[in-house]
Specification:
By secondary structure, this protein is an alpha+beta fold. It is 34% helix and 18% strand. It contains 13 helices and eleven strands. The strands form three sheets. The protein has a six-stranded antiparallel β-sheet, sandwiched between helices. The protein has a three-stranded antiparallel β-sheet with strand order 2-3-4. A hairpin with a 2-residue loop joins strand 2 and strand 3. It starts with 5 loop residues before the first strand and ends in a 12-residue tail after the last strand. The structure holds flavin mononucleotide. Flavin mononucleotide binds next to helix 10 and strand 10. This is SagB-type dehydrogenase family enzyme. One of its GO terms (molecular function) is oxidoreductase activity. InterPro entries: Bacteriocin_Proc_Enz, Nitroreductase, Nitroreductase-like, SagB-type_dehydrogenase.
Length: 329
């Protein structure tokens, strides 16, 4: 099948001193001869054959290689792009008046965090101080858990946590969380670590909300801490199971077009909240992981091209020595 490729909406190119640059990659003078026409053509979508035929050149292999490299680097894409690729373009639009150092100098980051969590945008004017801030212990004592005990998770707790995402019997067509249009476009996979969930073998499973069950898709032996950034490797290694959330464009884009993607991300946040809440009830701690090296393990999931990785969560019994949560609730 001749795929139609598009210039990725998150990617910029420029020609400087007759050389072509695409994002941080330098392609040189010869490649520059095809621009900007190549870009205009790819913006509207074109097959690789059409792109190759469009340009008169003695060096056909250069053009062919260029196209293949653009595909490899996801400069040319033939399916919905990942959130990372999509949101990358926003960085340059944001007027950042903070120094780069807040990313890696601990004290500067702490100061930045204090400033953000303590912001009070509007202070003058009619103000009411709200009262009655009492909540159940699961909300009061919830905290992100990064160190887990090695105790295997009971099948009961594991079932209650993932079961929160099932299709309901009592209210057909709905689940225990809201979703735009009732389409539930977020697919869920769970990686069970060896011996860490009672009665469940190690492996990567697809969570099936229709039967409220899990089905093995990969033995998971190649899913290691190398799929995480260094700061999150220990969290991954210690957890009993990892939940992966993937947006499935086929489920909501037919109705909502591009906004379906945005709603899917919102759904994922709501699901994460629900999982966190039920986990607390079961004495299980969770850690959301914002970013990871998902590309390293993608092939284990056997996805179709409309499924995109959004988010993951590490789960396990809290290491009581580390937790501030009281033992008796
Ligand atoms: C979207 C998202 C991404 C996060 N990513 C990470 C992460 O990569 N590593 C980590 O240790 N914690 C991560 N966290 C946890 C936050 O650091 C934590 O929620 C925050 O510091 C507030 O602390 P608390 O959850 O204990 O109240 C993430 C949380 C969210 C919601």
């Amino acid at each position: 099948m001749n795929e139609i490729y598009y210039w990725s909406p998150g990617v910029q190119f420029y020609v400087k001193e007759e050389e072509l640059y695409v994002e941080r990659f330098r392609y040189g003078r010869q490649a520059a001869q095809f621009f900007p026409e190549f870009y205009y053509m790819a913006q509207n979508g074109a097959g690789t054959d059409d792109l190759e035929k469009r340009f008169e050149t003695d060096n056909k292999s250069l053009l062919k290689n260029l196209i293949q490299d653009f595909i490899k680097k996801k400069i040319l894409v033939c399916s919905v792009i990942t959130p990372k690729e999509l949101f990358h373009s926003q960085t340059r639009l944001f007027e950042n008046d903070y120094p780069e150092t807040i990313r890696f100098v601990k004290e500067e980051l702490e100061e930045f965090k204090k400033e953000q969590s303590g912001r009070e945008l509007v202070k003058d004017g009619l103000t009411y101080i709200l009262k009655d801030s009492y909540y159940c212990n699961d909300i009061i004592y919830r905290e992100t858990v990064r160190k887990f005990s090695k105790k295997p998770i009971t099948y009961h707790s594991f079932s209650r946590i993932l079961g929160a995402l099932q299709n309901r019997e009592d209210r057909k067509g709905t689940r225990y969380y809201p979703s735009a249009g009732g389409l539930y476009p977020v697919d869920v996979y769970v990686l069970v670590k060896p011996g860490r969930v009672e009665g469940v073998e190690q492996g990567l499973y697809y969570y099936n909300p229709v039967i409220n069950g899990i089905t093995l898709v990969d033995k998971g032996e190649n899913i290691t801490d190398k799929s995480q950034f260094i700061t999150n490797q220990e969290i991954f290694s210690g957890s009993a199971f990892t939940i992966y959330f993937l947006y499935n464009a086929r489920c909501s884009m037919p109705k909502y077009s591009g906004m379906g993607y945005y709603y899917g991300i919102l759904d994922c946040g709501i699901m994460t909240g629900l999982i966190t809440r039920i986990s607390e009830e079961e004495g299980i701690g969770t850690c959301s992981i914002g970013d990871m090296l998902y590309g390293k393990i993608e092939s284990c999931f056997h996805l179709n091209k409309s499924q995109l990785f959004l988010h993951s969560m590490e789960c396990g019994y809290k290491d009581e020595a580390e937790s501030e949560q009281p033992k008796e609730k």
